[in-house]
Design goal:
By secondary structure, the chain is α+β, with helices and mostly antiparallel strands. It has a single domain, classed as 4'-phosphopantetheinyl transferase domain (Ribosomal Protein L22, Chain A, Alpha-Beta Complex), CATH 3.90.470. It has five helices and eleven strands, in the order E-E-E-E-H-H-E-E-E-H-H-H-E-E-E-E. Helix 1 packs antiparallel against helix 2. The radius of gyration is 18 Å and the shape is globular. The N terminus is likely disordered.
Length: 244
């Protein structure tokens, strides 16, 4: 089996940590991600169920709006915010805006040729990431909020060595959440290269901060670069993946 290694500086055993932005970018105003070349991040609030107006829906194409109108209320609000954020991020990355960002396989949006992107929804906010597709580089995005302690998921998320190290350092929920979020972003970044479900056990974060892939079908190898930051109680993780 082939494996891929990503050399990322260690902090909390997971990822290169970036400074949080001094001012969070306004809704629908994309901002460049520090330390991640030519990559734009955009945020849009997800409307509450009692809200009639959906933020960003007026920026969607006619086909996207029809898709939103056909969805159930909660899903409609997530899709509207996510597609609006993705459209804005793609435009910042150089996309002209023609075409529809409708769901493809496994519900992921079909991206325009020449671009890579990712969407995440969490705690009332949709975030989207977009960049030009160059040299096979693809991106993945995840966002998590501390919320209640869910450390009982550790056995599903961590490989044995990761779990031993996590418990030895105190077994704190935010530290587990960091590893969970990085792995989620890894899987999204790898999906264009490995178009199947990837289990949590197929990625391992070592104590020195490197990430080793244990892809069960031997795909790869890949080079991964990870960046993350905390914004108060919200964690944002960005991963770049490219064939090694």
């Amino acid at each position: 089996m082939r494996t891929g290694h990503a050399n990322v500086p260690a902090l909390a055993g997971a990822v290169r940590w970036a400074d949080p932005p001094a001012v969070t970018s306004p809704w629908l105003r994309p901002a460049l991600v520090s330390g991640v070349p030519d990559t734009w991040l955009c945020r849009v609030p997800i409307a509450r169920l009692d809200q009639v107006d959906l933020p960003g829906v007026d920026t969607l194409s006619a086909a996207e709006r029809r898709f939103v109108e056909a969805a159930k209320p909660r899903r409609a609000r997530e899709v509207a915010a996510g597609r609006a954020a993705l459209r804005a991020a793609l435009r910042a990355a150089g996309w002209g805006g023609a075409g529809d960002l409708l769901p493809g396989e496994q519900g992921r949006p079909r991206l325009p040729d020449g671009f890579t992107g990712s969407i995440t929804h969490k705690d009332g906010v949709a975030l989207a990431l977009a960049a030009p597709l160059r040299a096979g580089r693809t991106v993945g995005l995840d966002s998590e909020v501390v919320g209640r302690d869910r450390s009982d998921i550790a056995r599903r998320i961590l490989r044995p060595a990761e779990q031993d190290r996590w418990l030895a350092t105190g077994g704190a929920w935010p530290q587990l959440l960091e590893v969970f979020s990085v792995k989620e972003a890894i899987y999204k970044a790898l999906h264009p290269h490995v178009p199947r479900y990837i289990g949590f056990e197929e990625a391992e974060v070592h104590e020195d901060g490197t990430v080793q892939m244990h892809l069960v079908h031997g795909e790869g190898p890949f080079t991964l670069e990870a960046t993350a930051w905390w914004e108060s109680q919200r964690l944002i993780s960005v991963v770049q993946a490219r064939p090694a």
